[in-house]
Amino acid sequence: MASGERLGRTDGSGPGFFLVLEGPEGAGKTTQARAVADYLRAAGRRVVLTREPGGTRLGDRLRDLLLAPVGGEGCAILPETEALLYAAARAEHVRRVVRPALAVGAVVVCDRFVDSSLAYQGGGQGLDLETLRGVQAFATGGLTPDLRVLLDLPVERGLARRLAEPDSVNRIDAAGVAFHRRVLAAYHALVAADPDGWAVVGADRPPEDVAADVRAAVASRLPVGGVAEDVASGGDRAR
Fold first, then answer.
1. Which of 185, 96, 99, 97 is nearest to 142 (CA)?
2. What does each C-alpha distance from 67 to 53, 75, 215 come to in angstroms?
3. pTM
4. In sequence order, what are the residues at sequence separation of 6 or more whose Cβ sits closer than 8 angstroms to the Cβ of residue 143?
């Protein structure tokens, strides 16, 4: 499906632009999401910077459960339960934050979206991809990003970055190298299946070099201009 044919532009979600950053652990998604949001604001675009799971009050509570720190009070979660919890957080996020922002013409910059579930619960946990796609379609109403940027780097490098900050290590970080290799392989398969929907940026470089390539990928799809303004939607805060 080519970029101009994305459901996000044909299902009544509005004239905005939906940008998602994806990738394995330690790829620098949060850093790059902030950097590209700053770039777009400076270029005159209205921007909502958000993340998954999270972005709403309920989503943040589910995030605390799903990404509980190692050694904390979190509990073991079955793969099927995990998938449904992510979908629940996503349904709230899309309805309360993403769609309202798109409807008023904002650029939504999101740290993770549907493809994270396909890569982690599908590729990593081995759940059926078509079943997951059905759950995600229900949760999002078929909303599809205009552009996904995969921040790509070797699993070992990404985990080394995460494990260098032991206080922030969560249950996903601790899932093991084999799990994370399956996740990365799933991302590569998703890109191969829809190359027009993705830009792949090597993330094993200085952050400023990665940011320059992310900006170039976005600029190739999104005209800039207009009045810079942050948009809060649906009664929940936008990050």
1. 99
2. 9, 10, 29
3. 0.87
4. 7, 8, 11, 13, 18, 94, 98, 99
Domain ranges of the chain: 14-219
CA distances from 186 to 70, 112, 131, 142, 148 (A): 25, 15, 16, 21, 14
Q: What pLDDT, on a 0 to 100 scale, did the predictor assign at position 166?
A: 77
CA–CA gap between residue 58 and residue 77 (Å, rounded): 18
Amino acid identity, position 17: F
The conformation of residue 234, written as its DSSP 8-state character, comes to T
Note the pLDDT of residue 192.
98
pLDDT value at residue 70: 66
Find out whether 149 and 214 touch, Cβ atoms under 8 Å: yes
CATH for 14-219 is 3.40.50.300
Rg of the chain taking only CA atoms, in angstroms: 17
d(CA 140, CA 135): 9
The mean pLDDT values, 10 residues at a time, for the chain of 239 residues are 38 83 96 98 96 97 88 77 97 98 98 98 97 98 97 94 82 89 98 98 97 97 59 36
Can you tell me the distance from the alpha carbon of 168 to that of 68, in angstroms, rounded to the nearest whole number? 9
**Beta strands 17-22; 107-111: pairing state:** parallel
What confidence score (pLDDT) does residue 235 get? 35
Number of neighbouring beta carbons within 10 Å of residue 109? 30
pLDDT at residue 89, rounded to an integer: 98
